[in-house]
Amino acid sequence: MALFQTAFAMLYQFGDAFAFLVISCAGLAVIFGMMGVINLAHGEFIMCGAYVTATVAREGLPLVVAIIAGAVVAGLVGMVIERLVIRHLYHRPLDSIIATWGISLIATQGVLIVLGSTMAGIGTPLGAVTIGGDSYSAYRLVLMVAAIALLAALYLLFYRTRFGVVARATIQKPDMARALGVDTGRMYGLTFGLGAALAGLAGGLYAPTMTMVPTMGATFIVESFVTVVVGGADIFVGAAPAAAILALIRATLTAWYGQLFGQIGLLVAVIVVIRILPGGLSAWLKRGSR
Known about the structure:
The chain is mainly alpha-helical. It has a two-stranded antiparallel sheet. The N and C termini lie far apart (46 Å).
């Protein structure tokens, strides 16, 4: 029984870390991994989704509806920002870094001024599951399932629908897509909006588990960039293996030595992977399959 408890605890920690990495990096993977835009405002889109989710949930609507509302609002905000700012900075990565950093500062300070330094949370639903005397959050188990479902949904969207085909064509060969009659400006806007909506979804999903503060996006952004960089340019080939490897390292070190060593191990693993595989896991896996 003791062995089963230990194994379940390790598996739970791995699943929790894996879910966090996948859900938090999905929006960044679309915007950065596919579009090449280094979006330093990713954390603020997450914060937007979390704040909207908490606000809607406190009005008495179901949590699922609140989470969807958070994702939709973040997506709409992302489309507006893409139209006004990002659209003029494609193929100018340094300028996009500065612009999105500025948006990040404006959003954080704006929320701080308007809504204050903290916001009432909504509490974690579903209670706990008891295994051998140890309690585990049932909602965290839901997040693990949500992470897998999100990966499957993104794969189907980008590889099994017309929108996905046109979006990938627009991003990879914009001149050819434009020559074939595709409204590339509209596709860029929709793709960026999708990335922002996924960030809002991450905020909504984790809103019940976190303290609601204007700087809450910083909790996500490091792990998001780490996972996308390790995974490489192809978000479907690289993101899931990268999240699994990093989650295993983080969960193991956290179980043995504590949270701090888990974070340190995560960053050391990133440095090693980037040094050995500068193209990320996706480039290595594709090269190996040829």
